[in-house]
């Protein structure tokens, strides 16, 4: 048996054999000069899947989100974000660092912001106030335990944006997980956003990279911003090639991850000290609290590690993520390790 079952994130997924083969055989050019055919193929495939005019390969989801907000804003603008969203909390203040705009965090019901509250926070510019230029939505919502934000909510926020001529940037790092969990086609989710970012490097198992998609003029300017941020990469077809495999071969299996996460959540929810409602587990992320008479959260995570289970510790919780390289045996092992530690 392997030494560690790595539940820290779906970013730890290793490339498949087909991905390694695609990397070895990739036809490359200089993508900064615009002639890497493998990158071009990936970019048009991503755009087609999202129903957008154009796509841009970026080194990370963080850079994709940063570029989108940079393109959609000017200084003295404001961006509405959900208060637990990845972009605002886990991307090293890139909103202010790169775009020099003000984030306006709003509360939500498991990632779904109240459209009325969003509307009341949309500002017209004045001598006092910034102009609201973008609303960011995230689906699935990482820090809400991988929740699927309901389509009616997203549509209501889209209506607010249309009424006030504000853009929507859709952080769809796990948009395929949302689609598989809800049965709603990816294109329908993508239609909510003027721009959509999604990750190839998470459950889809490519080693590196994310895609930014949107209208052609948006992507043209985004390409210039990417270069300015140092994200122009030369013969990057070697990394785009496994991205193509990710999009053509790896989306359907995400539902297996959801089934395993649900089973894991049901298996641990009733154990002493675990604060988790398994009903809330829609996809592949389980975030739970722990209040145990004998063991602190950090001690618990250290003890999990000693027993071969790796978990991560986002603010306020412990996180387990299922993915391609977690199988049923890993889930069984995690449940029995939890039981041993908590009921001893
Ligand atoms: C992981 C993630 C990102 C950023 O992706 P990186 O490639 O790690 O920079 C953005 N948004 C969400 C919701 C994520 O989970």
General shape = globular
Element-by-element helix/strand order: EHHEHEHHEHEHEHHEEHHHEEHEEH
Helix content: 40-55%
Question: Which stretches of 5+ consecutive residues score pLDDT under 50?
Answer: none
DSSP strand tally: 12
Report the span from N to C terminus.
Answer: 24 Å
CATH topology of the largest domain: Aspartate Aminotransferase, domain 2
SS-based structural class?
Answer: alpha/beta
Question: How would you describe this protein?
Answer:
This protein has 344 residues and is an alpha/beta fold. It is built from 14 helices and twelve strands. It has helices spanning 17-25, 37-50, 61-72, 86-89, 94-99, 115-120, 151-164, 175-182, 186-190, 216-228, 237-249, 254-268, 297-306, 328-343, and strands spanning 5-6, 54-58, 77-82, 102-106, 131-138, 167-171, 195-199, 210-214, 274-275, 285-290, 309-310, 318-321. The strands form three sheets. Strands 2-8-7-6-5-3-4 form a seven-stranded mixed beta sheet, sandwiched between helices. Strands 9-10-12 form a three-stranded antiparallel beta sheet, covered by helices on one side. Helix 1 (17-25) packs antiparallel against helix 11, helix 2 (37-50) runs parallel beside helix 11 (237-249) and helix 3 packs across helix 10. The longest helix is centred in the last third of the chain and has 16 residues, at 328-343. The chain is globular, with a radius of gyration of 20 Å. The relative contact order is 0.18. Bound molecules: pyridoxal-5'-phosphate.
């Amino acid at each position: 048996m392997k030494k560690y079952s790595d539940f820290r994130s779906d970013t730890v997924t290793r490339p498949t054999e087909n991905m390694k083969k695609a990397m070895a055989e990739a036809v490359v050019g200089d993508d900064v000069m615009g002639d890497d055919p493998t990158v071009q193929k990936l970019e048009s495939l991503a755009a087609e899947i999202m129903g957008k005019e154009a796509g841009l390969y970026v080194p990370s989801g963080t850079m994709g989100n940063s570029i989108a907000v940079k393109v959609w804003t000017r200084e003295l603008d404001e961006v509405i974000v959900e208060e637990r969203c990845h972009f605002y909390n886990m991307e090293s203040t890139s909103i202010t660092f790169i775009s020099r705009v003000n984030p306006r965090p709003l509360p939500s019901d498991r990632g779904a912001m109240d459209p009325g509250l969003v509307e009341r926070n949309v500002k017209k510019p004045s001598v006092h106030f910034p102009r609201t230029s973008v609303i960011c939505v995230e689906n699935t919502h990482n820090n809400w335990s991988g929740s699927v934000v309901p389509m009616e909510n997203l549509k209501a926020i889209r209506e607010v944006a249309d009424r006030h001529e504000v853009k929507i940037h859709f952080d769809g790092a796990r948009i395929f997980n949302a689609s598989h969990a809800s049965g709603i086609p990816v294109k329908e989710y993508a239609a909510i956003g003027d721009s959509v970012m999604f990750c190839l490097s998470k459950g889809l198992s490519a080693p590196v990279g994310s895609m930014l998609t949107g209208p052609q003029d948006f992507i043209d300017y985004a390409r210039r911003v990417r270069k300015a941020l140092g994200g122009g990469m030369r013969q990057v077809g070697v990394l785009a090639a496994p991205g193509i495999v990710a999009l053509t071969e790896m989306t359907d299996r995400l539902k297996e991850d959801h089934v395993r996460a649900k089973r894991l959540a049901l298996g641990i929810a009733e154990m002493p000290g675990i604060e988790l409602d398994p009903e809330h587990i829609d996809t592949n992320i389980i975030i739970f609290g722990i209040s145990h008479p004998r063991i602190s959260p950090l001690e618990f995570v250290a003890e999990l590690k000693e027993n071969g289970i790796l978990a991560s510790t986002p603010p306020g919780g412990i996180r387990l993520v299922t993915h391609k390289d977690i199988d049923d045996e890993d889930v069984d092992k995690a449940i029995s390790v939890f039981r041993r530690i908590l009921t001893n």
